[in-house]
Design brief:
Radius of gyration: 17 Å
Order of helices and strands: HEHHHEEEEEHEHHEEEHHEEE
Distance between the termini: 22 Å
Shape: globular
Helix content: 40-55%
Structural class: alpha/beta
Strand order of the largest sheet: 3-2-13-12-7-8
Largest sheet: 6 strands, mixed
Number of domains: 1
Length: 198
């Protein structure tokens, strides 16, 4: 593991490791389904105003913020702090502040792992939160299938960004259709902000 981390550090520090907009730098299933490379400039500008991406290295990013390619796990300990414990006091108040600038309602689509970057009890106390669950019907039972969940988080993010849909519309849609479980992993939406956890 030490050798792998040394190689990762050398790659990160290398001049060949170019700076790329965050929304294009991440290559996971969620980001593949967001399809930022096919967005036009207006869509990218909208995303940059309404989307935050969490990162174990950078904290919270806007989509067009430039980052270097890296690999870092949340449980990595630096100076006796995991990335979760490092970011929690920094990101919690910022997330709350950003959502309160809108209507104080957060549709939480983040994975349970990424919720650890925040003091979720405080977030829950300060904001109105809706957390849909993504399920797939398999063998007659509703199940969470991680790869499907990740795909649909990306698809939902893309749909929201491309159509500039805010929380009020989504909340109305969920209540109107009694959708508590959506059939289908990193996104949280407020009225005009979308938070994506990578």
């Amino acid at each position: 593991m030490q050798k792998k981390n040394l190689i990762r550090y050398k790659v990160f520090a290398s001049k060949d490791n170019i700076i790329t907009p965050a929304i294009l730098a991440y290559q996971g299933i969620v980001f593949q389904h967001i399809g930022a490379e096919s967005m036009n400039q207006d869509q990218l500008n909208y995303a940059d105003k309404h989307l935050l991406i969490t990162s174990f290295l950078y904290g919270l990013l806007r989509p067009l913020d430039g980052i270097k390619s890296y690999r870092l796990e949340g449980n990595t300990v630096i100076d006796n702090l995991s990335r979760f414990n490092y970011w929690k006091p920094i990101l919690t108040d910022y997330l709350i502040s950003e959502v309160k600038k809108d209507d104080g309602v957060l549709i939480n689509l983040a994975s349970n792992e990424m919720k650890k970057l925040f003091n979720w009890k405080k977030v829950n106390k300060e904001l109105d939160i809706i957390t849909p669950e993504f399920k797939t019907l398999k063998n007659g039972k509703m199940k969470s299938i991680v790869v499907h969940t990740k795909m649909l988080r990306g698809d939902m993010t893309k749909f929201i960004l491309n159509n500039q849909i805010g929380c009020s519309f989504i909340f109305h849609l969920l209540i109107k259709h009694n959708v508590y479980y959506i059939m289908i992993d990193v996104v949280t939406i407020s009225k005009s902000n979308l938070y994506l956890y990578q």
